[in-house]
């Protein structure tokens, strides 16, 4: 199997909740730790346990996309899986995913995960397919495995304006995938389950604050460029009923359509 890195983004005390499996040949871990409190620094050596398969990167500023990018830059393997610190991931199925990517020359693969209660977070296809600019909108960041050599050759990274801790606190995975698609990279969905995530997910809430709504607007404009406003209206129409029931439709309408 080609070498695999698991890039895990974490912050402050959350690093001590990581569940990193025992050492496996050709599997490495890049832990990107965004730390704002010096009290954690003295405990890190004990946490690492002297393992040579774990690389530690400390950042003293926020931004999930910045964390992902540092992880990709530090990866020394051909493949890297994007991971959060609250996911119970399955190395065997991730290795299977990488084997398929390598055999089929796939640059970026997306997959699926389950929730702790045994349910699915969304409806997944049972068959493999190539992503386009629309299907990639449904992908979560923890469903992404990349050919590191390819993203470096094509000079694609996560846009650090998007993602938790950034100017626009969502949308980084969609922007990343569509950037890859626009550069004619091979971006495919493979129906492999790679992990289990807690039932509560931050991506479900896109309308409870003006910052979250504006992030969606900026994401759509970033992806669709001159056609952006057409797709902003389409998004507003699609989500109108849901927000009307669950949130503030006036707030949503104001900031998604007008941005202010």
Automatic annotation (TrEMBL):
Transmembrane segments: none annotated. The keyword Lyase does not apply. Residues 46-128 form the Glycosyltransferase 2-like domain. It comes from the Bacteria. Keywords: Transferase. The keyword Nucleus does not apply. GO terms for molecular function: transferase activity. Signal peptide: none annotated. This is Glycosyl transferase family 2. It comes from Marinobacterium mangrovicola.
């Amino acid at each position: 199997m080609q070498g695999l890195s698991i890039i895990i983004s974490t912050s402050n005390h959350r690093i001590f909740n990581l569940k990193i499996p025992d050492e496996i040949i050709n599997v490495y871990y890049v832990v990107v730790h965004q730390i704002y409190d010096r009290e954690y620094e003295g405990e890190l050596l004990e946490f690492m346990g002297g393992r040579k398969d774990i690389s530690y990167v400390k950042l003293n500023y926020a931004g999930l996309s910045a964390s992902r990018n540092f992880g990709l830059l530090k990866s020394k393997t051909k493949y890297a899986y994007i991971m959060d610190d609250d996911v119970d991931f399955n190395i065997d199925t991730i290795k299977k995913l990488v084997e398929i990517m390598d055999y089929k020359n796939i640059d970026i693969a997306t997959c699926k995960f389950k929730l702790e209660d045994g349910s699915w977070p969304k409806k997944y296809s049972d068959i493999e397919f190539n992503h386009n600019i629309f299907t990639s909108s449904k992908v979560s960041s923890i469903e992404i495995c990349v050919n590191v050599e390819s993203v470096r050759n094509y000079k694609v990274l996560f846009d650090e304006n998007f993602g938790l801790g950034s100017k626009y606190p969502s949308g980084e995975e969609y922007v990343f995938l569509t950037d890859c698609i626009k550069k004619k990279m091979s971006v495919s969905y493979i129906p492999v389950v790679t992990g289990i995530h807690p039932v509560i997910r931050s991506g479900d809430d896109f309308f409870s604050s003006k910052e979250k709504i504006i992030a969606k607007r900026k994401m759509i404009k970033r992806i669709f460029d001159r056609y952006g406003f057409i797709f902003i209206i389409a998004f507003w129409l699609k989500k109108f009923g849901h927000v009307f029931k669950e949130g503030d439709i006036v707030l949503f309408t104001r900031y998604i359509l007008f941005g202010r």
